[in-house]
Amino acid sequence: MATAFCWASGTLMFTAAGRRIGSYNVNKLRIPIAALMVGGLLYLLNGSLFPTGGDTRTIILLVLSGIVGLVIGDSCYFRCLVILGPRQGALLGSLAPPITAVTAYLFLDERLGLLAIFGLIVTLAGVTWVTSDKKDERLDNREGSKTVGIIMGVLGAAGQSFGLILAKEAMGETFNPLSATFIRMGASAIVIWLFASFRGEIKSTLMELTSKKALYPLLGASFMGPTIGVWMSMVAVKLTQAGIAATIMSTFPIIVIPLTMLIHKEKPTTRSVVGSIIAIIGVAMLFIE
Asked: Which among 23, 57, 205, 215 is least buried, having the fewest CB atoms inside 10 angstroms?
């Protein structure tokens, strides 16, 4: 639930930053910023800037998890957000829990009980009911067509799911989730900036930081999303089944509703309220399981 709250906050701020400097620039900047923030947390909590423990296999799996989930998955997802808007983007993001549950069943032999499966379906039904509301959102056609947005959303959900599975396998029962987050972030920052360097984009990307209208939401989103949010997601996926964790995390569109009420003074529709209640009932079933 902490992950869902962080991701809801981050979604609004990342969308605001992305519409000013582009989703690709946002992803290039947020990952190294988050890596620095996670390193700071490691130092404060563990007395070290770098993670300790973990064998070669653990490190390799976490590096792959970061590249698949944070570089590929999130790049696709944030482009989807900018094209389709946070509501429709979140709808496609809700594909992540069933993908995670199926992948965990195939590769980790995680089996969900009947109540958990029913709770997963009820939760996703509530989230889908809310996020499929036909309320118009401003689209940014510079980033691509609606078809491109849908493709990016599906790829983003798949990337995030596979990233979670790799991270869960890497951590096992003993590896520190914050250390896992730092390895994922650090590897992702290196990969995405090597790619940016190859394309000669480093200077132009850093220049985007001079835009205060983009910088402030970017810093806030980097802290709430890939720093605290991803850390909490690692804790969640370590302590419970990946499908259940992914489903509870997917409720962040529900949390977006009260946040938009406070920030943008938007009134929720009856559909939003009903869908939220359905999703909460589904999450309750998952906790009972």
From this structure: 57
Q: What are the pLDDT digits (tens) for 31-78?
A: 899 999 999 999 999 888 777 777 899 999 999 999 999 989 988 887
Contact (CB, 8 A) for 83 and 20: no
- Distance, CA of 214 to CA of 169 (rounded, Å): 36
Distance CA 72, CA 94 (A): 17
User: Do the Cβ atoms of 108 and 165 come closer than 8 Å?
Assistant: yes
Angle, helices 74-84 vs 146-171, to 10°: value is 150
Query: Rounded CA gap, 27 and 193, in Å?
Result: 10
Cα dihedral sign, 150-5-246-133: negative
**Cα separation, 41 vs 22, whole angstroms:** 28
**Residue 159 burial (CB count, 10 A):** 23
CB 72 within 8 A of CB 152: no
Asked if 244 and 105 touch (Cβ cutoff 8 Å), the reply is no
How many domains does the chain fold into? 1
In 108-171, alpha helices (H):
114-131, 146-171
In whole angstroms, give the CA distance from residue 78 to residue 199.
20
CA dihedral of residues 198, 81, 69, 46 (deg, nearest 10): 100
d(CA 245, CA 255): 16
Residue-range definition of the domain harbouring residue 184: 2-288
- Quick one: pLDDT at residue 199? 87
Structure-token pair, residue 115:
């109540």
**10 Å Cβ neighbour count for 193?**
17
pLDDT, tens digit, for every residue of 109-138?
888 788 888 888 888 888 777 766 665 455
pTM of the model: 0.82
